[in-house]
Write a structure and sequence with these properties.
about 200 residues, alpha+beta, OB fold (Dihydrolipoamide Acetyltransferase, E2P), DNA polymerase, domain 1
Length: about 200
């Protein structure tokens, strides 16, 4: 399995980029978010990748951040969500926004992504929330309060629930979230927390 590629960006087009590593050009299908993050052609770039092997094809997907890669893998694990839909969702939303939609059961917002109807949006929310429960990830306010006391919840609690969708437990994120102003927007709290986790 190819986890990441580091090389020279030699070509990009809507839907994919080509990264040359050791004289070999790797075509990576990707989201619009990653395309927007790409440097100029000829620059060095690192992509986090996922290889999809099917009977009729082998396809490589590349993402600018490990969070986007993990979100893609989680989304495509949902029944009915193929690679094309996973890319469409991540072209429309950041991983943080996807997590907030799932944690808040906001199916309507998810339908803004190409190929995602109301039924599929509901399935994504249902399966991913259930998946978190099966993994033993609990995100109720009572669970959170065991980890941190004297915290004004509100957006902190919502951010914790959203991060749980990305696979982080309250024990992972609450020590970080408790440092921030709870009046900050949920998406900003998630972004700051993911940046801090990435430094460790």
């Amino acid at each position: 399995m190819i986890y990441s590629l580091r090389g020279t960006l030699i070509y990009e087009m809507q839907g994919f980029v080509v990264v040359e590593c050791g004289g070999v050009g790797y075509k990576c299908s990707t989201s619009m978010s990653t395309l927007r993050a790409m440097p100029k052609i000829g620059s060095e770039v690192t992509l986090f990748t996922h290889m999809a092997v099917r009977e009729d094809a082998v396809e490589l997907f590349g993402f600018a951040t490990s969070q986007e890669l993990e979100c893609f893998k989680i989304l495509t694990g949902v029944s009915g969500v193929g690679s094309k839909v996973g890319i469409a969702i991540l072209s429309e939303f950041t991983p943080e926004q996807v997590a907030v939609c799932i944690a808040s059961s906001d199916a309507k917002t998810l339908t803004k992504a190409s190929g995602v109807g109301n039924k599929l949006a509901q399935r994504i929310i249902l399966e991913l929330k259930d998946k978190m429960k099966k993994l033993g990830i609990t995100t109720s306010v009572s669970d959170i309060s065991k980890s941190v006391s004297s915290v004004s919840f509100g957006n902190i609690s919502a951010a914790c629930e959203a991060l749980a969708v990305l696979g982080y437990t309250s024990d992972d994120v609450m020590p970080i979230l408790s440092q921030y102003d709870p009046s900050l927007k949920v998406e900003e709290l998630i972004h700051k927390t993911l940046l801090e986790i990435g430094k460790r």
